Amino acid sequence: MSVILGINKDHSDSSACLLLNGKLTGAVAEERLGKRIKHDTSFPSNSIVWLLKDANIKFKDIDIIAVSNNGKSNLKEKFLHAFDFSILNLAKKIKSKIFNKSSIDKEIKKLCIKSGENINDLRYEIYKVEHHLTHIASAYYLSGYTNKTAALSYDGSGDGVSIMLAECDNSKIKVLERVYLPKSLGHFYSAVCNFIGFDKFGEEYKVMGLSAYGEDKYSEYFEKLIGYDEDLCLRQDNIFDYNSIDFKKNQTIKFNKKIFPGKKIEKFSQESKDIAKSLQSTFEKIVMKIIKRLEKKVKTSNLVMAGGCAMNGLVNGKIFKESNFKNHFIQPASTDDGTALGAAYFCWHNYLKKKETFIMKHAFWGPKYNEDYILSSIENKNLKYEKFDKESELLKKAAKLIAESNIVGWYQGRSEWGARALGNRSILANPANKNMKNIINSKIKKRESFRPFAPSVLQEDVVEFFECDIRSDFMNHIVKFKEKYVDIFPSVCHVDHTARLQTVNIDNNPLFYRLITELKKVTGYGIILNTSFNENEPIVDTPDQAIDCFLRTEMDILFLEKFMILKKL
């Protein structure tokens, strides 16, 4: 038996996954199981322990530990960048990554001893894979595409690279092009977010939502700073203050003082909205030109994408609509947590030379808790409950409550892999209630009022509601509602008439599909409001976390597997 443990460390969204004979058994981000810190960068100790326990695997059984960064890759470019900007802390970071094998050994041995195993029985080899190669591998090797496939990975940076273009075929990844730091489309997006007041790591998605409220007034200025280049792929002025980065505390990128000199923007002002709109517009123009560049290099209809920038649903929808790439795969954890998968599968196909493939058909790779555990969690809180032994009765009850505009916590099966709740750790509501968006934002999520919510839609009903017939199982595309439905579903239709769509079919989530089908019988529409089960925290994973979130917010009902909990019976 071949056992591969994939790890993402030293980047945001620390994570781990486990492969047995090339088959994925589980994948989870450390933020779900550890200290409950968003974008946790600590070693994924809790994730590793859970994965091995769940699969009944010992530390001594591990053959390969695959790590999603390689300090030795692109060394010339890394140090040129460091010396160019006199960034001592960046140089130190590069040095630490080159020699991080011992730190991995140390952490694994600590976990091994804690588990009661003998470290002398350990026999694994450690393979380190270049960051963007793992991004591409995480998408390509799980896509199911067997013929020639184009690949794009783009984010802030990883191993000195911000963009990678590749051609994939017959289990091989051929790198066509790298864009090196300091040029970075991802850092540009982050710097603008920081400038207009969204200064926490990972808030880019908020600015994408805010952009719908603005006018494109700054694109001309932005295009002087950064743009597409026919020869070098990306053109960029010296615009970032890399000396401001503290890699241990945050990774936010700031502009040099010469950019918007002396200008201060009030968060949520109209000017901030206009800048957000201009940012998104500039980003889309550049990405679409890069996509056209990739079309010329790789003649195919297949495209796989990964990296933090691949979470930009607006440009993803545009790629689907306007490019020749009609087969479009982005796995659910396209940010750095997904690189653990990429490292593992890169080793499977390239170091072990295995041809057997694994297709990711769903996103449910995290923990599941049995009925006794859930019941114990309920009783420990002295909560009254109703149990449904028949699934059909549970679904009828839940659908009726949602149709009546109750806000429902929905906790079922294994937790989702990635940033999106896809029907197992979700808060659900009636999308036709015009007040629902404001209620959930203010009383449950405790977040900005402009933030939109996603519709989960039966796959067969997508063409009825939206302007394009698309499959988006992992909620990666933002598409436009047909005009006649804009006013019918106000709580999931954004101000620009778009929505971040999740398509649901009987194969990717049977229970969620049947729930929406039941709701359709009551309302006439196969669509539901779906947002992540959390309150300014990582998505809940355990039953206890779900109960705590339910009790401290204004959710009306909680379904924990077969159990229904009401605050008032």
Account of the 3D structure:
This protein has 569 residues and is α/β, with parallel strands linked by helices. It folds into three domains: 3-131 and 341-351, Nucleotidyltransferase, domain 5 (2-Layer Sandwich), CATH 3.30.420; 134-332, 2-Layer Sandwich (Nucleotidyltransferase, domain 5); 371-566, Alpha-Beta Complex (DHBP synthase), CATH 3.90.870.20. Helices cover 35% and strands 20% of the residues. It is built from 18 helices and 23 strands. Helix 10 packs across helix 11. The radius of gyration is 23 Å and the shape is globular. The chain starts with a strand and ends with a strand.
Q: Determine the CATH superfamily of the largest domain.
A: ATPase, nucleotide binding domain
Fraction of residues in helix: 25-40%
**Number of DSSP-assigned strands:** 23
- The low-confidence runs, each spanning 5 or more residues with pLDDT under 50, are none
